[in-house]
Amino acid sequence: MSEKINESNLTEKKKMTDQERIELATKLDKELDDFISGLEKKADKWKEGADWHKEMENHPFFMKTLPDGGEVSPLVEGLQQLKYSKEENSPEELAVSYKEDGNFNFKCKNYRMAIISYTEGLSQKPSNPELQAQLLNNRAAAHWELKNFRSCYNDCKAALKASPIYVKAEKRLAQVCFELHLFDECVDLCDKLLKGAVDNKLSSLRLRASKQKNVRDRNLRKEEVKKKKEEIKKATLKKMIEERGIKFFDKSCWELHETVLGQTVQIDGDHLVWPVIILYPEYKTSDVIENFHEKNTFQEQLDVIFEQPPDWDAESKYTPTSIVVHYEDVDGKIHVVNKNSTLGSVLKEPHFRVDGNTPSFIVHAKETEAYKKFLNHYN
């Protein structure tokens, strides 16, 4: 059986006339008086700890939530219409109502709900600039409590744009500027507010902001000096590399300055000190020489590395005298390195290219099967 449709639910709600509003207000006054009178008669029956507040919440004036199911009585509906209906209220009146809701939620520490209420009030686009400023400043206060400092800052700015002379908004703006490390603006605001006035909190805020500003400025100066030194070092490094005719697989790679190993090409007087990778394909391992001076020979470095047999060379095949060193060029060909050559002289060779700011060399032990396979691979 089909359910009957209540046609009364389909009719649009009519706008209340002035007479209807007066009658509703009169009815509300009477019902409230009757309700309070009823409470007075019951007062002598209530004992300490009784749930008298629950009975009060049953009245539309005091209820905190709507009844289950979302259905409301005509009285509650009338109250809502009186307060929130766009037909019954001007944008200013609606904005004030939402501001009051926001203030209530703010006092109850429901800051997110307060933000929603203030935002709804602003959406009514009230023409009164002071009301706009109040809504913005109150929303800024709610954002402050939630530590939404950037939103708080923006709302304070907007409030002062709507109402330029607004001390509350300026004070909050000074506070949030400190939290956002906008110390210059914070100091300026404090100076403005402290003219001809005594405010210990503002004076303390200004002092803290001034100290932080000085610390920040000092750090910025240090960073600027460091940056200039790095630029000079980089320019000097570029000049020294170009003078030596050292080439890179990627011509711009050296400008990164820092290598894939986290090491850097260092300047030692008129000389360069490089991080160098030594590869051992036979054992799939490697060594890193962090500071290979361009005036040092490969033999000098190998004598240090192989002073004791490495753990991976169980047969002690790799010794300073048995080792042979190669590098691979851009065409995939290998070149033997004279171990008595300096690093600087090898880097200048026409076929050599630095890869990733880190020169690398391939090391084998002579007369081993791995070395023979290596040579056959490139022949």
UniProtKB/TrEMBL annotation:
One Gene Ontology term, aspect cellular component: cytosol
InterPro entries: Csn1/TTC4_wheel (IPR044059), TPR-like_helical_dom_sf (IPR011990), TPR_rpt (IPR019734)
Coiled coil: none
Top-level taxon: Eukaryota
UniProt keyword annotations, A-Z: Repeat, TPR repeat
GO molecular function: Hsp70 protein binding; Hsp90 protein binding
Residue stretches making up the Cns1/TTC4 wheel domain: 271-376
One Pfam family of this chain: Wheel
Listed GO biological process terms: protein folding
Family, as annotated: Belongs to the TTC4 family.
Name of the protein described by the UniProt record: Cns1/TTC4 wheel domain-containing protein
Protein's organism: Nezara viridula (Southern green stink bug)
